[in-house]
Amino acid sequence: MRTEILRSALRTALILLVFYLLQVILLARFRIWGVVPLCFPLLAVAAGLFGGGIWGGCIGLFAGIICDSSLGDSVLLFTVLLTVMGFFSGFLGEFIMARGFPSFLLLGLIGLILCTGIQAVLFSMLIPTPWRVLLLAALKQLLITLPFFIPAYLSVRWALRPIRAARRKTTF
Sign of dihedral through CA atoms 134, 86, 41, 71? Predict the structure, then answer.
């Protein structure tokens, strides 16, 4: 079981590094419609769904720290938010929802709407902006992030496969 945990942790760290480099180097330079995709909530949701609440919370914590440090404008917003999202998606995956792509799609959309909504509220507190402009920016960010659902789903599912296989062996 320990080798599976270590293997999954290393694979997940590699995925976080790849998505970080993708977010900082490539996506931050090429803004489409003036917004940047937000991929880290998808990783937290997928980790919670496939690894459980503890894995989701831990990976959400690291993804949140990376996201806060790469964006630079939000102090602990994503660290707290992605940790909670990862934990609750793990809880829902354990007890309520199936662990498949439709569940990931639903939870990922809810997570992205929550992240962009909180960003919009915080931005409107700092700079008074009409809600229509904020809603349009949030919708653009959501649409730009949609193509990253499949890579996030497949990569985290691959990374946490040893954990799921070890759980199946011990439960039966």
Answer: positive
